[in-house]
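Assess this:
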Amino acid sequence: MAASVFDSPLYSRLFPSGEVGRLFTDSAEVRAMLLVEGALAKAQGALGVIPETAAAYIHRAAMEVQIDPAALADPTGQNGVSVPGLVAAFRSAMEAPEHAQYAHWGATSQDIIDTGLMLRLGRMLALQEEMLTDTLKALGRLAADHAATPMAARTYGQHATPTSFGATVAHWGSPLLDLLGELPALRQSTLWVSLSGAAGTSAALGPKAQETRAALAAALNLADPQRSWHSDRGPILRLADWQTRLALALGKMAEDLLLLTQTGMAEVSLGAAGASSTMPQKQNPVLPSAMAATARQAAGLNATLQGAALHRLDRDGAAWFTEWLTLPQLCLAATATLIHAQSLSKTLAPVPSAMLAAMTDGQNLIHAEALSFALARHLPRPEAQAAIKALCKEAGASGADLAALAMQAYPDLDLAPVFDAAAQMGHAPDEAGRFAAAAQAL
């Protein structure tokens, strides 16, 4: 088994990370940190904190210099952070000591690492937003097409009352719409610049520290928190929470699909299925299984990440390292779940005949609630409930159909509409329609 399925060629299709996966590589991390160093120098040069000529040279070099991440392994292992080795390699690669001395002026390793991370997380959110929007549009079309397709709603795993497949799709998609709507505020409260110096006091950054931080934020299109957040991991936790809720919302869809594709009921066709090495009849629901697995992984990693927020005093190496071990895997788990959901949203389809059969094969017991309310028009409600409960018990004992028993017991009542699933879906079709309209308007 690979150390991480997300960067394994063998498992790359089962647990795909797409373009997001490239953001969590050593080369992407080094490139992001160099961009921060270059932008910092440019901001400081414009403010007169360092010579403008040196600032221009550093800024250009940061975009041109290539540094091998493997060459930073020894200093990173020794120092616990990659930045001292990176800065030394960067200064050497510039081959201009008179300018290179001003690189990394007044900043600390955490400023560069956290700001570089935010650049990559911002790009990740943009990619996820595109995939999520596409998924929602596909689910919206599915909900619109099947707003009035009857199926059995289940509570506690058992038939409850009729609903529609479109409403079921809406229940999958509505939390995703909420998550999509949260993104602007999430970016503002998460994608922060960090520039506070060694212990968060900005002492080495000089009197223009706040102006420098604001200029750096503007240059990198990040938010300026106007304070140090070295030991405040709120931005990380907020982003991790969003990633986890995304994975869990998609995981709920996956769990439903696993149930709806079981042998003997198969009320949904996935459009793609996996084969067994020995059982020719198998059509395994591979994608929903992978989605459920990565959703569970995200939930577990989020719990670890919450604990990693307990930074002691002004910086905590152990807590910070735990964050490095956890956050990338959580983000990739959420992304893999989303990639599979995007694919499934375009191929899955209901099997209306199987959905109808599931209700009638259940001896029409799914209509017991509607039947009790129909009878309550002629009897007190408690008596009507007791009478229908007795009929349900008789149906269970004898195997008889509830509709036949009810019509035999109450021949003078027109009970046909009660056993018409299309007439017993309540506002499910309307709910499907509202979701479809919202999703298709994206």
Q: What stands out?
A: The longest strand covers residues 158-164. The beta strands are 150-155, 158-164, 268-269, 349-350. Confidence is low (pLDDT under 50) at residues 274-282. DSSP finds 17 helices and four strands in the chain.
